[in-house]
Amino acid sequence: MIDFPTAIETVTAGQDLTADQTGALIDAMLSGDADNDAIAGLLLGLREKGEAVSELVGAAQAMRRHMTPIPFSGDVLLDTCGTGGSGSGTFNISTATAIVVAAAGVSVAKHGNRKATSKSGSADVLAELGVAVESSVEAVAESLERVGLCFCFAPKLHPAMKHVVGVRRSLAVPTLFNLLGPLCNPAGATHQLLGTGRTEGQRKIAAALAQLNTTRSLIVRGEDGQDEVALEGTTTAIEVQPDHTETLSWTAESFGLPSASMAQMQAADPADSARTIRAILAGQPGACRDIVIANAAAALWLVGRASDVRTAASLAAEAIDSGAAEEKLSQLAAQA
Predict the structure, then answer these.
(1) Element housing 221 (H / E)
(2) Is 294 annotated as ligand-binding?
(3) Which one, 177, 226, 232, 331, has least CB within 10 Å?
(4) How many angstroms from the chain centroid is the CA of residue 108?
(5) Is 90 annotated as a binding residue?
(6) φ, ψ dihedrals at 175, nearest 5°
(7) Which fold has domain 4-66?
(8) Domain 78-334 is of which CATH architecture?
(9) Mapping DSSP to helix (H, G, I), strand (E, B) and coil, where does residue 215 land?
(10) 93 among the known binding-site residues?
(11) Would you kindly state where each structural domain of the chain is located, as residue ranges?
(12) Residue 92 marked as a ligand binder
């Protein structure tokens, strides 16, 4: 065990904490056994040093111990939660992707929260789409079982975070906890399409996921700064399995899609994002539809539904054009 003063001194000196040390410190925070000054000092020290992979792993393991689990009996479960913070201003691409992938027959537990640094968080846009985002644990589990799609609202399923929320707000800068959401899916997602806008963050998250029992995950980063599979420039994707990591590069052409810029995918607020998603699911063509198809294709390839992403893009398009994705959203909303 390491105490907070020693830990703060260690990271201030530029030295990394072990996974066990970090886990014990996060346990203390989430149990309400650490004062705000100690929490703030450690989080800022880690931020200044740069969070190490060992620290991400230990913190994620601790958060998983404190979260409320959602039962799932299947073999394959996808999450499309990313780190956020890219500042892209786009509509909620990963949320639309989750709906389309579920419509293609893959169980999805979408983990997310209300907006923090973005114009629209996944919870915000789903609420606009008629989904009860603050449902009980039982209702979330039932949705996953019956619909094959559920929303895991972070504050509801990570109740111990109440002990650190005040400190995080007072610091007003990204901290270790901003990287942990995608690593702590309450339903225990076996597969993840995880976006991040930062090169160093992508590498660290990939290394951490390799130690956190993922079956197969993709950490994607667009050349244009998007924390998604992008349609402009090159998307770098790190494929992670427990004993294997490989870096891939995709362009819009890889998916059989035209290039498109972030400027074509903007949303002013949750209502605007919801309108865009409804239009996509109703069959409206254009850049917004295409980027959802690209991301859904990456997810479908990830879980083994297609041998390549171009074939997977056809499956994603069919899930939209058949009306299955629109119906899937209706089923999710009906689970209130």
Answers:
(1) strand 216-222
(2) no
(3) 331
(4) 12
(5) yes
(6) -130, -175
(7) 1.20.970
(8) 3-Layer(aba) Sandwich (3.40)
(9) coil
(10) yes
(11) 4-66, 78-334
(12) yes
- The pTM of this model reads 0.96
For the record, the structure tokens of 263 come out as: 């400027």
115 is in an annotated binding site: yes
Task: Show pLDDT as tens, one digit a residue, over the chain (336 residues).
Answer: 899 999 999 999 999 999 999 999 999 999 999 999 999 999 999 999 999 999 999 999 999 999 999 999 999 999 999 887 656 789 999 999 999 999 999 999 999 988 765 677 899 999 999 999 999 999 999 999 999 999 999 999 999 999 999 999 899 888 899 889 899 999 999 999 999 988 888 999 999 999 999 999 999 999 988 899 999 999 999 999 999 999 999 999 999 999 999 999 999 999 999 999 999 999 999 999 999 999 999 999 999 999 999 999 999 999 999 999 999 999 999 986
- Is the separation of the CB atoms in 49 and 9 below 8 Å? no
Q: Look up residue 300 and give its two tokens.
A: 């479908």
Beta strand 244-250 pairing with 235-241: antiparallel
Q: Which two tokens stand for residue 30?
A: 């989430």
